[in-house]
Write a structure and sequence with these properties.
Layout lengths: L4 H6 L2 H21 L7 H5 L1
Protein name: ISH3 family transposase
Organism: Haloferax volcanii (Halobacterium volcanii)
Amino acid sequence: PRRGGRRLWQWPFKEFINMIRRAAWTALATRRAVPANRPPDDRFHR
């Protein structure tokens, strides 16, 4: 079960943050690309 547990830590922390940041930006982009038939973001914000 401990296959690449230690190898993950060898990754540079910056690369890990970049990966998460890219995923977050893509999620935001897809959310914005969704048609406007959904409730406005203002309602979601509140």
